[in-house]
Design goal:
Blueprint: H1 3-10, H2 21-27, H3 30-46, H4 53-77, H5 79-84, H6 100-121, H7 124-148, H8 152-161, H9 163-172, H10 177-200, H11 202-208, H12 213-216, H13 219-242, H14 248-269, H15 279-311
This protein binds protoporphyrin IX containing FE (HEM) and farnesyl diphosphate (FPP).
Subcellular location: Cell membrane
Enzyme class: transferase
Membrane topology: Multi-pass membrane protein
Amino acid sequence: MSIVEQTSVDAPEVGVSEATAGDFLALLKPRVMSLVVFTALVGLVAAPVPLDPILASISVLAIAVGAGASGALNMWYDADIDRVMSRTARRPVPAGRVQPGEALGFGLFLSLLAVLTLGLAANWLAAAVLAFTIFFYAVVYTMWLKRWTPQNIVIGGAAGAFPPVVGWAAATGSLSLESLILFAIIFLWTPPHFWALALFKAGDYGRAGIPMMPNVAGEASTRRQIFAYTLLVAPIGVLPWLLGYVSAGYGLVAAALGAGFIYYAWGVLRMKPSDTAMAPAKQMFGFSLIYLFGIFAAYLVDVVAARVLASGAFL
Ligand code: HEM
Ligand SMILES: CC(C)=CCC/C(C)=C/CC/C(C)=C/COP(=O)(O)OP(=O)(O)O
């Protein structure tokens, strides 16, 4: 083998991308973002304006691309800590399949594409709120709060709460109390959702040096805070019915889901230190996803049913 051939065969692989389309898809955090996009869709459909299906589809697609882009930017910046956590070590950047520059370029390009598309197709208020949401998650939460304070996900959770506001703004060109209540539901839901996971992944966050609540305030305090936020989110979940935005059907579903959420949080609160398997925290995390999906699905069904009934289309 000549020297030239040998050099090319033995060349270090730094800077060489082995990325597949699947790796770029993984950068978009599709599973998490599917529920984010669903909440945006509900905000868009709930808005009291006639729905243009083409405009609505483009808007939801743009929000999905923007949400995915923020995930790619998060994975670009967090590659160092993702590398040392068991849950995230196999992600494309820490595993070396996608180069950091590729993830950054991909995230920036998709962010720009999403914001411009939403601005041109819907309106610039919606585009501005989407841009702010991407900025809040990728910069304020990821680059600052996450590594700095155990309140990281309380404040940073605002990013995850904006999508229904973006959806509502895309449909109406304005903000409203109703969309802000949808915001409040997600905002108050985020701490129980995430701290339940952080309880059984505390080792990961400790290794990565991230000040998540269980690592800083301890397990007992985190369990109490989870319970407190759950007591707050349950009544706020029912508020849209009490304010007359949706029917008692939604109210009943929200009350039942809220009661279930409190039940699981009670299980977490009463966890024994000997419960090393963390079963109540795992169940709480699982139920958090059912809770948020259930609340927004009930909202969607309620507003669509109300419109069908009002138009007499069922007759
Ligand atoms: C700052 C806010 C949030 C934080 C820190 C957070 C954190 C996490 C983490 C660490 C996971 C573990 C799964 C994984 O590794 O991908 C997860 C799962 C999940 N999160 Fe969140 N989350 C937040 C907000 C949200 C919001 C707003 C939604 C939806 C509206 C959401 C929906 C989901 C879903 C659907 C999963 C399950 C994904 C799966 O099945 O793999 N999260 N979250
Ligand atoms: C429309 C739009 C831009 C939406 C963005 C919505 C948003 C901010 C969702 C947050 C979801 C999430 C996975 C947070 C975890 O970050 P993490 O870095 O703590 O979790 P990780 O350790 O799994 O990376």
